[in-house]
Amino acid sequence: MSNGAKDDSEKKTEITRRQLFKGAVGAGIMASTGTMALNLMGGKAEAADRSIPKTWDETYDVVVIGSGFAGFAAAIEARNAGAEVVIIEKMPLHGGNSIINGGDFAAAGTKLQQENGVKDSPELMLQDMLKAGAYLNHIELAKAVAYQSKDALEWSETYLGAKFPRLNFHGGHSVKRAHQTENASGSGLLNKMLSKSKELGIKLKTRTKMVRFVVDSNERFIGIEVRNNFTFPNENSGKTAFIRARKAVVLSSGGFSNDVVLRQVHDPRLNEKFDSTNQPGATGEALLAACIAGAMDVQMDWIQLGPWTSPDEKGFGYVPLFCERLVGYGPMIYPKTGKRFFKETGNRKERADAIILLGEPVIILGDSYAVNKQVFPGALEKGMANGAIKKFDTLEELAKNYKIPVAPFKEEIAKWNSYVENKKDPDFGCMIFPDSKPTVTGPFYASRLWPRVHHTMGGLVINKNAQVIGFNMKPIKGLYAAGEVTGGVHGAVRLGSVAMADCVVFGRIAGKNAAKEV
Amino acid sequence: MSNGAKDDSEKKTEITRRQLFKGAVGAGIMASTGTMALNLMGGKAEAADRSIPKTWDETYDVVVIGSGFAGFAAAIEARNAGAEVVIIEKMPLHGGNSIINGGDFAAAGTKLQQENGVKDSPELMLQDMLKAGAYLNHIELAKAVAYQSKDALEWSETYLGAKFPRLNFHGGHSVKRAHQTENASGSGLLNKMLSKSKELGIKLKTRTKMVRFVVDSNERFIGIEVRNNFTFPNENSGKTAFIRARKAVVLSSGGFSNDVVLRQVHDPRLNEKFDSTNQPGATGEALLAACIAGAMDVQMDWIQLGPWTSPDEKGFGYVPLFCERLVGYGPMIYPKTGKRFFKETGNRKERADAIILLGEPVIILGDSYAVNKQVFPGALEKGMANGAIKKFDTLEELAKNYKIPVAPFKEEIAKWNSYVENKKDPDFGCMIFPDSKPTVTGPFYASRLWPRVHHTMGGLVINKNAQVIGFNMKPIKGLYAAGEVTGGVHGAVRLGSVAMADCVVFGRIAGKNAAKEV
């Protein structure tokens, strides 16, 4: 197992898609893609390996890959349908992105909405999803999420015991329909799922990485090859073992926001200069393993970027909470020219695309009036403490710090201020809010912005039974999938708070059907 | 071979993606997807078939699948590199879409451009391609096309003997760089390729359909299973045979604009209500067969629609030549309301998306002044002869014919006319050209418009050597691809006239490298 490949795999962060695709026939490209393959496929395993083990190390009815919302929902439903269930998780901790997200769960027509006087319906939620998705959504899937969202939320509350006391609004939704967990984190639901799964006798194996699917001669998925005691991201760590699935495998391994090579295949702009808001394990090797075994992928090139993140802090950070409250109150500046370059109130995708085109971080700034009025104090303090938000007494000082040419910058601010006074931006059509004021009152606050990869809309094709569809257009026997590893639910753009609904709705469907597979 | 499946395959036009994905677990969906699979994979063949034939019916060094520009370019270069070459083509006639296209070949920095005073460069062409492609292009591929376009054109002229006397402009290009064949058709090049291939002793087998790739235990592509004497679209016709490729297979089977099921997986809007400008054989089974055998697909959801086609004539037709000359001179009307609904001068994608959202054909109209000034007489006459363009003495008559409510329609025309007089459209921002006049002078001409699928940008991932990349991120041994079956060259949007350049550039690369494969 230790075959010298380790040295290669340790170089993986240096390998870019550019290198992958520029090679000549022969040694150059073979070497670099060889490394790439090791990176993606896990050390020893060969993509072409189609062998069936003579003996299995462990056997269950249903094997669930990944321990986020979708994986736990599947495991719990499969167990309640009588199956013996294991969840495997490659990371040392369960929960994936689910345990670090904001805990907002979109659901339509709920009790909390009624109590808050919000009129909503599954059909309205569906229409919002389709519009955001540029009508690329697989309609039956989007419909399932919208129409079963209320039931999924109620199941999370009454059966699992999670609490969702707060109703939030997210852009692109027609009404407030994001039901937020008590602790404003996905852990508010995920930990309830963990407790329930323990109570039900579901086994959770962390540090267990899926390497390939085992498929029998009838093209039925009958189990997986794993590495036990895996230490992420060392692809050669751990020990090979085989886990049999008597009934079915459920793939709920999440998205690939942190997989630089894979995301660059589908959106070549997203090189190593782009960080991600996701947990480090959000890579695509399980998705690719499914494709190697015959599963069809879809809409992989729709990768959502947050335009509001800063290169000066990690993960999601505090700058998004600074930036998103300032747009429409302060200008966004390209440091090289000192000028504005895009509509500050444009949507996520438009703004991210515009920043990427410039090729370097931009600046968002606001004066004391705007910042004190708009920005949540906690976010401001924390962003300043970690250095991602900076305070300047004068605009000259601000310009100097970010190497902005002072004269054109000051001209631009004067122009912006005239637009604010006229409440109209003839240059880019930015919305200027009624209570917005010219940027004149020091001190001034600013942050650098560089988009970060946030969500991957594409993934495996499934039908409304959560069966994975193969490139032969048939449902694959013994393979179900749910959550971010699937594609089609969201189409081009996922709306905020719909991921939780998607994971719980389709996780439950996948678990129920996996337990019934014959 | 005749196993009753024929009845199913004959039903294929009735099967929609909706049916595919709405099924319940069990008989319902299995039946419909079973039919789907037969449709896509060709009767008998099972996707899972990985057997290697004991004997081969025919053997060549290089086997080329598809007889368009890319296939012939590959075959000719492989032959000139010393390989024994066969081209297989499933249709009764060679040429695919290449032989029916308009014969426009984008090339940068050519003699004809110099003679016409056009300043151009490969870098400018590359930048145009990237901008149109929303920077999703695989840059090394786009670069290869832009930088080798001149050489590919010269090869077509000097080596093959094709003539490109005319220089045309296409939207999205910075300069005139479309070199049009003498007969204003792709056949002007394709037939020269055919002659040369005969001269070189390249075998062309029409009515020969590729069913699956044969892959050895080292994951090397060593040949293909075909059906000889295949009669499109009868998937069960013909007789199974095996063709060995000593060196490599080149896949140049074109796009999938006419494959309703496959295109609906990637863009669910594009159901059977959408016709295509392509030849009937533009289906995706060869692309899918490659994916089943391990090839990776990319950007399949970028499917180009022409917003200028009419449901009242077949193929490309004459209405595009009517519509595209009228935009900016006459309004586009939604018959249900009698009102305009979108910027007439918006780009192809914007207009097509807007029409699709309405869900039914719209009307483009012009008065005698606009039509006589703008529309090429031949196109007008031919469109009128086939009934797709109609003439009316009055606007009332026009409204009545298309069931447009008369009063709101006449109000809308009056409003449009006021915009034309002011040279400004405050409703949708349509460009109003300086010589545009109000729509008042009878007779009036009109056509119904409904978008038609024109080009599929996505396809197999290749590197700049035209090697196909697998889901394991490695180049596949023995498999090359070129032309519309590949993805990444064009990114989100293919510019007019770049397809020919792409096919010839990458066809040649694929052929040369296939002949060298060891």
Automatic annotation (TrEMBL), chains A, B:
It comes from the Bacteria. The keyword Membrane does not apply. Keywords: FAD, Flavoprotein, Iron, Iron-sulfur, Metal-binding, Oxidoreductase. GO terms for molecular function: FMN binding; iron-sulfur cluster binding; oxidoreductase activity. Residues 61-498 form the FAD-dependent oxidoreductase 2 FAD-binding domain. Its cofactor is FAD. InterPro entries: FAD-dep_OxRdtase_2_FAD-bd, FAD-oxidoreductase_2, FAD/NAD-bd_sf, Flavocytochrome_c, Succ_DH/fumarate_Rdtase_cat_sf, TAT_signal. NCBIfam families: flavo_cyto_c. Belongs to the FAD-dependent oxidoreductase 2 family. FRD/SDH subfamily. This is Flavocytochrome c. It comes from Syntrophus gentianae.
